[in-house]
Amino acid sequence: MQTNLNLRHRIRQPAGGGSSFNQLLGIKGAAQETNKWKIRLQLTKPVTWPPLVWGVVCGAAASGNFHWSLEDVAKSIVCMMMSGPFLTGYTQTLNDWYDREIDAINEPYRPIPSGAISENEVITQIWVLLLGGLGLAGLLDIWAGHDFPIVFYLAVGGSLLSYIYSAPPLKLKQNGWIGNFALGASYISLPWWAGQALFGTLTPDIIVLTILYSIAGLGIAIVNDFKSIEGDRALGLQSLPVAFGAETAKWICVGAIDITQLSVAGYLLGAGKPYYALALLALIIPQVVFQFQYFLKDPVKYDVKYQASAQPFLVLGLLVTALATSH
Q1: Where are the transmembrane segments (predicted)?
Q2: H helices then E strands: how many in the chain?
Q3: In DSSP terms, which residues pair with 19 in a beta bridge?
Q4: Cα-Cα-Cα-Cα dihedral of 9, 11, 13, 17, to 10°?
Q5: Which SS3 state, helix, strand or coil, does residue 74 take?
Q6: What predicted TM-score, i.e. pTM, was given to this entire model?
Q7: Three-state DSSP class for 302?
């Protein structure tokens, strides 16, 4: 009872000195907001859209069939909207809904635990974004002339994965390994597959390669777990920092990111593409530097600074790999 009283007390506290910019991006340190459209945007976490958008770019590049024509550019933009604002927005809103208890501990000023948006409004947003994303997926299949609606089925599969990641009874995020790998696959493999299927053929070797790259996505997902240790532990969620301790988890994190990329570089070298392999290696070096400079020193204090510094090199590496597989 005392815990519940403390929790309700904390929920009433506004976010002091929060940033309006953070609020629009949907990241930690957001200001309190009463405008419903700004709150709706915050729930979709626009800061999480770029990796999905970039994944579509990589898939289109890997297809070898993308041309800088008005039609292909328009198709890619619609695919980016499907992957980013709609389906990632659906995923993030859904996750916030099922995380409302843990957010009441970690970030009580967020829209749902603070009561800034009602239950019906949140559920309506979830359905609108989901159906909008699936509708765009079906449109892309028709536009591309697919006999089999592969983009639509990828969207359905990704949406289902998002649901079981956040929602009981499965709630994959309760297990640090399975949950973070599912998140990594959602951010790397699925948009790549959608972009490649839209412009070309999705082949088994690409599926295997991108799933391997999703192990790096697992590492990226662990970065976000450090700021939630208190709430995860209180609610019994076995994130890797909770299960192994912060010191061990931070090495698991950087190991997953670095070893995956080194393995892909080795694959490219073995496939007779040494220049692409060298380019990928060159992009791994600054990531390791920033890991020691920021993340390994203090993963909680420097999580945002580390991601802003290191992740551009990781996503450029994805494009290098995509270009290598297109030739």
Answers
A1: 126-144, 150-165, 177-194, 206-223, 275-296
A2: 17, 0
A3: 30
A4: 150
A5: helix
A6: 0.86
A7: coil
